[in-house]
# Entry
Amino acid sequence: MAILGCVADDFTGAAGMASFLKKGGMRTLLLDGTPEEMQETDQADAIVIALKTRTQETEKAVSLSLEALQWLKHQGCSHFYIKYCSTFDSTPKGNIGPVCDVAMDFLQVKSALICPALPVNGRTVEQGNLYVNGTLLQDSSMKDHPLTPMRDSNLKRLMEAQSRYFCLEIGTSFSDSDRSGKEIQTPHYLIPDCRTEEDAKKIAETFGSLKLLTGGSGIAEPLARYLLRYYQKENRSMYPLLLAGSCSVATRGQIAQYQKKGGKSIQITPAMLCGHDWNIVEFWESIKSDLSSGPVLVYSSAAPEQVKQDRALYGDVSGQIEKTMAALARLAVESGVTGIISAGGETSGAVTKTLNQKAFWINESVAPGVPVMTPVGNRCLRLILKSGNFGNQDFFEQALGMIEERNLWTNY
# Structure
């Protein structure tokens, strides 16, 4: 389900916004107009709707923008962005104010952000004024635009001429208290200064939790990162589960290294599996609570001498071990675990089979030949499946780091 819904006033601006959201890690869907038919949006983190409302008659622009917002809300979006040009329409009859006002009314919010900045392209806000490559907007080459003349650079004056609500300039010293606006009871806009990409990052971190933001695409990339991190933190109930069935020297060394670093681990032995009181569900429940505080490694790996001794006592239980590891993976995913790391070719094959996933997005690799994978049918899940002999000594630590990174920034 999408997190962010964006309404842009023209197609090129929408495409630019979408590109920055994608750069920030969001799977972004760009739509030309509000869809009249059902659209498949389940795989999107952000949806950007391109309208043609920048110079349209105000009543029509407001109507189309409201229709887009309603559609985005119906898709499950929880955060919204009104995207307009990073060079502000300076006419009192401009559409930015009315469209932002109707968005505030529809979403029932009392505070929204005004940030028409894109520092990487020379569009900055300083002391509440909009600059183009260091020149005030009113003095720039864009001042005589035939459709949207830009004769004033002060955002507070520009916005208050178009909007029903007042604006508050908050400069660069803003903090979380500015975000809450508890002392202001009437609807209002906040105008922060945004001179650099570092400013944009600070703005996204401070105001990213607001339901409605408006402006250019300058804060889009850090906003995407913030929202993905925010929702990952909110939604994560359990840490990754690590499974190791390989008895290779490499995997046993990786297990020892993981344990040496203080990682929680539990060994499954043939004696346990052949015991009369063995119950896979009860075993899962015994480690489930541990996953709420950190990763857990379940392993059956043993040295050759131990394997030989166990076979003499219990026979070949390799098939039972594979089924056990697969069952743990299935129970983990059903319980909300979003990261599975598996060491061993047979173990990994059993895991993919029981999860019934047939297609995967390929992300970056933990080690040569060992990518982080995301099932097409479950975009919240991250799988790292390796051959027993692959990976460095600290493979499990590296894999956990990569799973965390992929949970936050998806690159497909």
